[in-house]
Amino acid sequence: MAREDFAKPTNPYHYALHCISGRWKMVILHEVYTFGKIQFNHTRKVLPITEKVLSQQLKELCEDGMIARVVDETKFPPSVKYVLTKSGEQLLPILDALYIWSIRQMHEKNIPIDTDAFAVHQSDKYLDELLDIMIANGFRPDKKIERGKKMR
User: Fold this and answer.
1) Which of 9, 30, 115, 132 has its CA 20 to 30 A from that of 46?
2) Considering the entire predicted model, what is its pTM?
3) What is the rounded CA–CA span in Å between residue 1 and residue 76?
4) Residue 30, exposed/middle/buried by CB under 10 A (0-12, 13-18, 19+)?
């Protein structure tokens, strides 16, 4: 979706899609939420994302007020981290509901589910909603799985 200035009346669905569209935006928001903050280089190592795409997605999330870029000038070189804003925090329950809905739809339609979907979403809210699907897909919540590893 093209970046817009929103100077004219805008459909709320279009605005919401504008804020979260992009292959990695929802994943990045979940990472920031899960870990409290993220740093560029570490995120590049754990997600299969190019430097250019990560940089662009972080920039857009900052522009849209979902995350904030925090620079610690007391370190050399300066340390940069990204944290959720209040607006980003308000969005997370909606993304959780969308994520759970998506997993259920994929399971019902026999669409293969990426193993990382379960490995990185093991909090009680996901276990309560998705335990049956996790088990049906060979995921055992009691066994820790590293991201990107095969389960079987």
Assistant:
1) 132
2) 0.82
3) 37
4) middle
CB atoms within 10 A of CB 33: 18
**For the segment 63-94, what is each residue's pLDDT rounded down to a tens digit?**
999 999 999 988 888 899 999 999 999 999 99
Residue/partner pairs of 19-25 with CB below 8 Å, 24 or more apart = 19/64, 19/66, 19/91, 20/91, 20/95, 22/56, 22/57, 22/60, 23/53, 23/57, 24/49, 24/53, 24/54, 24/57, 25/57, 25/60, 25/61, 25/66
DSSP 48: -
DSSP 11: -
Tens digit of pLDDT for each residue in 14-56? 999 999 999 999 999 999 998 999 999 999 998 899 999 999 9
| Structure-token pair, residue 146 | 């590293």
